[in-house]
Amino acid sequence: YHNMKKADVKVQTFAIYIPEKVNGSQRFSTALTMVDLFYEKIVKDQSYMVPILKADDLLKLKDSGKRGGLLSLEGADALEGSLEYLRILYRLGVRCLGLTWNFRNEAADGCGEKNAAGLSRFGRELIREANRLGIVLDVSHLAEPGFWEVAKRSSQPFIASHSNCRAICNHPRNLEDDQIRMLISKGGVIGLTFVPAFVSKKEQVTITDLIKHIEHLLDLGAEDHMAFGSDFDGIDQMIHRLENQGEYVHLREILLQHYTSTQVEKWFWGNWNRVYLDIIGNY
């Protein structure tokens, strides 16, 4: 909370990730335990942080002193192949769905699978149901064949919540230029992540290295389609001087030396805000 306040971070995504060691039939109940922790430990009294359930919740944050917590699924593993489980988790507050982590599940293949395929029948059904409910689809971690199926089948914009540019850093978790162009054409957003290995092959990674990805995205026409997807809670190595949420202050200062305040505002707030307002709506 201290670092969120220091940098005036308005929204944090809380990812429900099911470890591989969890037994198949226990994945959904494990997700429910995490949802319960979110409501009991994070947003219970709502004096500081409120759950983001609808567009109005986001709109109210801009000028309030409160922060928003947004529940996401990092991988459809928790659904155990069930659309009913998706609908239950939606009713409990999940508003973003990453189809996979690095490996195969009932919906699709992750980027860590050899000879990866695209979406399964369940994965295709999941796209339709997420679109209907107003759940943001997330293609970070998804293998490339699945990415193209999402692009073809989704009636809504989709995001890559924490991915970078493969042209700048050749890592399987990053997106190729044609994928980024497709994401732009669909109205989505790529959230640049601070995982050092996804930013540069250098031993010590700096904000200057991250800016190379920003420059490349600008060359691809992504000014209105990029943001930041730090992944602070999922990494143990950090970019120098970008080691926690409080360092967003430093990042902003550096970016304002290179870009206009209008551009920087889009990347810190406006682009994420737009896509979530468009998709989650008011039920």
Give the oligomer, counting copies of the same chain as homo and different chains as hetero.
single chain
- Termini distance? 29 Å
Q: Per DSSP, what share of the residues sits in E-state strands of 2 or more residues?
A: 5-15%
CATH structural fold name: TIM Barrel
Which class of secondary structure composition applies to the elements?
A: alpha/beta
CATH top level is: Alpha Beta
Number of domains: 1
**What is the share of helical residues?**
40-55%
How many individual helices? 11
Number of strands: 8
Please tell me how large the radius of gyration is.
18 Å
Largest sheet: 8 strands, parallel
Name of the CATH superfamily: Metal-dependent hydrolases
The name of the CATH architecture is Alpha-Beta Barrel
Give the low-confidence spans.
none
Shape descriptor: globular
Brief description of this entry?
The protein has helices at 2-7, 27-42, 55-61, 83-91, 121-133, 144-153, 177-185, 196-199, 207-219, 248-255, 261-280; strands at residues 11-16, 49-51, 67-74, 94-98, 136-138, 158-160, 189-192, 226-228. The protein has 283 residues and is of the alpha/beta class.
